[in-house]
Request: fold
Amino acid sequence: MNLILKSQVFKLGLILFIMRVNPLYSQEKQLSVYGQLSGFRNKSLTNDLMIKSDIGLSLFNDFWISPFFGFSYLSAQQEDTTLENALPQPITLSTQNLNLQFSTLQTGIKIRLIEQDSNVWPIVQTTLQFGQAKATATQFILEEEPDLLRQEFRSETKESVIYPVFSLGIESTPFGSETVNLSVLLSYTILDVPEMADKIKTELPEDSGFTGDLSSIGLTLALKYTFLRKKEL
Reply:
C-alpha cells in the first residue's frame, strides 16, 4: 500500500512539474553558449589556489530553470623545496612538484529564485562533474651550480572521478541586452581523491603532504551568449 501511494504521489508531482515547465518552454526555444572561470582556495596546497574553467551549452536560459552541459578543466599545483646541505657549499636543493589535472564533462541546472520580469536575479546552480583525474609527481635535484638541475623521479597516476559543485549568486543582463548574461557566484566543490593521494605517497621518495582532500570554496564568473531564439506560435 505504501508503495502504491508513493507511486501516485510521484506521478502527481511529475504532472505538476510538467504543467509548470511546459507553458514556459513552449513560448520560445533558446540555445546559449557559456563560459565560466572559477578560482578556489585550498589550504592543503602550497600555492593555495585551484583554477577551473568551463565551456558548454545551456537551454532556455531566460526561464526560471535552465539545464546545461559542457566540458570542464581544473588544475592545481603543489611544490615543496628541501635544502639538503647548509652553507658552505656544496648545496643540494630537492624540489618536488605535484601537478593535478581534472578533465571532466559537466551537467547541471540553474534555477532563478524570482520571476523573470527583472534585470537582476538571485540564482542557484548545481553541477555534476564526471571524468578523469591525473596527478603527475616530479622531483628535481639542484647541486652546487645552477645549471646542474636534473630530474630524479617522475610518476603519473590516473583515476576516474565524480564530484559536485554547488553555487549561489546573481545573474544580470548588462545594459538591457537580450543576448548576454553575466553571473557572479560563490561556489563550493566537494572533491576528494584519497586513493590517488595514497598511490602518490607510496611512489614518491618524500611525502608531499597531499591528502587528496580538494574540497574548496571559491568565486565563479560566468558569461552566457544566446545565439538561437525560436518563437512558437
In short: The CA atoms of residues 136 and 161 lie 16 Å apart.
